Amino acid sequence: MFGGDKVAVRLVREMDLASLRKRVIANNLANLNTVGFKRSFVSFSRELETASGRLVVSMTHPRHLPGKNAGDEVRIETERHTAIRADGNNVDLEREMLDMVANQLHYHTITRQLSSRLANWQYVINEGRR
User: Is the pTM of this model over 0.70?
Assistant: First the structure.
C-alpha cells in the first residue's frame, strides 16, 4: 500500500489501534448503567511499555517460520477484579472520558504525521512543484 514505507505502515497501524480503543471506550460508556458490566480495555500499550527493548524477529533462512515482533499483539481485556458500585459495574465515567480525549489527541497526531508524510511524497512526485 505504501511501497515499503515502514513508517507510513506503522502510522496506519496506530490509527487502526486508536480506532479500536475508541470503540472499546464507547462500549464502556454505553454500558455505564448496566448492572454487573465490567469495563474493557485494549492491552497493546501495556505490552509496549513492559517490553524490555525492542525484539525484532527476522527470518535468516528461507525455511524459518515468520515471527511476530514484540508488542505486535493486540488484545481486548476485561477488568473483572474491581467494582466501584454496589451493582458490580466498574465503569468510571471520568476515567472513560479522559481515556477518550487522550485517544482522540493521539489519533489526531497520527493523522497529521501521515498527512505530512503523504504531502512530502506528493512534493517529490511533482518534482518540487506544489
Answer: yes
